[in-house]
TrEMBL record:
One Pfam family per UniProt: RVT_1
Name used for this protein in its record: Reverse transcriptase domain-containing protein
Protein's UniProt keywords contain Nucleotide-binding: yes
Lineage: Eukaryota, Viridiplantae, Streptophyta, Embryophyta, Tracheophyta
Top-level taxonomic group: Eukaryota
Single GO MF descriptor: single-stranded DNA binding
Keywords, in A-Z order: ATP-binding, DNA recombination, Nucleotide-binding
Source organism (scientific name): Linum trigynum
BP GO terms, sorted: DNA recombination; DNA repair
Residues of the Reverse transcriptase domain: 4-273
Length: 273
């Protein structure tokens, strides 16, 4: 089946059927957000996408910058955590009129919101062969799911965006799309629309880091910096940290304009000891 797929580019449609089971994240859930969807996929399809993943993994380090540390062979999340700890340590001691800010942004249901045209353009931009792009997009777009609810399966649902849950290939496709977002951020910085953070006069510019679907933005603490666009932001799980030398009124203004809550600490996962 796999050999035929890579030569013909087609598979039996039933192989793309999946069942979604909703697992409660709380006792007596009342909201959809209190349910965690688990997708049960066809084993044959997972074997095919796993083979594709094994061919893609060795070249990921060439396609993705060090700003992304998730799902990249040879990289560790701790590499970027050390950078964040150094940023916070320096900002806490910052003096003078100029301050710095860090935005920790979680992209809302990032894998589910990924547009297929954006994914296709991304695969072309990184230079994957056209046959590979055709096979990848075929597996992504031929997706049909049923939801198991109260012991009954729903009618088939055909998504129009997003990548398949629990598929070996999905995290790598998502990381490639985040790398394209990284290029867009770099372009904004080059155009002078976003002023990067510098920890010292001779130090490198810091603009952003990725941790899977978490995005950290670094900038000088200026009101004009606060413009967030692109993917939908999960405001409930996003936060802003501003260096202590910025007065409270200005810090509050930055927070209101970004619609992101202001926190005195960025979070224990980034703080270290």
């Amino acid at each position: 089946m796999a050999i035929n797929f890579f030569s013909s580019g087609t598979l039996p449609t039933t192989i793309f059927d999946s069942t979604v089971v909703l697992i409660p994240k709380a006792d007596n859930p009342e909201l959809v957000t209190q349910l965690h969807p688990i997708s049960l996929n066809n084993v044959s399809l997972k074997a095919i996408t796993k083979a594709m993943t094994n061919h893609l993994k060795p070249v990921m380090r060439k396609l993705v910058s060090p700003r992304q540390s998730s799902f990249i062979p040879g990289s560790q999340t701790t590499d970027n955590i050390i950078v964040v700890q150094e940023v916070l340590h320096t900002l806490k001691k910052k003096k003078g009129r100029k301050g710095g800010l860090v935005l920790k942004i979680e992209l809302e249901k990032a894998c589910d919101m990924l547009r297929w045209d954006f994914l296709r353009d991304t695969l072309k931009e990184v230079g994957l062969p056209s046959d590979w792009i055709r096979c990848i997009m075929y597996c992504v777009e031929q997706n049909r799911m049923r939801i198991l609810w109260n012991g009954q399966l729903s009618s088939p649902i055909s998504p129009s965006r997003g990548v398949r849950q629990r598929d070996p290939l999905s995290p790598y496709l998502f990381v490639l799309c985040m790398e394209r977002l990284s290029h867009m951020i770099d372009a904004v910085v080059r155009n002078g629309e976003w002023k990067a953070l510098k920890l010292s006069s001779n130090g490198p510019q810091l603009t952003h880091l990725f941790f899977a679907d978490d995005l950290l933005l670094f900038a000088e603490a200026e009101t004009r910096q606060i413009r967030i666009s692109g993917q939908r932001v999960n405001y409930a799980k996003s936060l802003m940290y501003v260096s202590p030398n910025i007065n409270k009124d200005k810090a509050s203004s930055l927070s209101r304009r970004a619609s992101i809550p202001l926190k005195s600490e960025l979070g224990h996962s980034w703080e270290g000891d």
